[in-house]
Write the structure tokens for this entry.
Amino acid sequence: MATANDIFDDFLADRGHETETETPAWEEDYNKKRCPECGGLHEMAAPECTVCGWTPN
């Protein structure tokens, strides 16, 4: 079943707007990982953000 976000994304895409469809991933900041949700810095081996709990899917 389509969610409200899926329907809204389809509506925008039909009208020429770009929608974000890729899964967010860790950002890299020097020798650390940066959480895309809260900006928390972590070691490269971190499996999840210890600040907000975000995990890459």
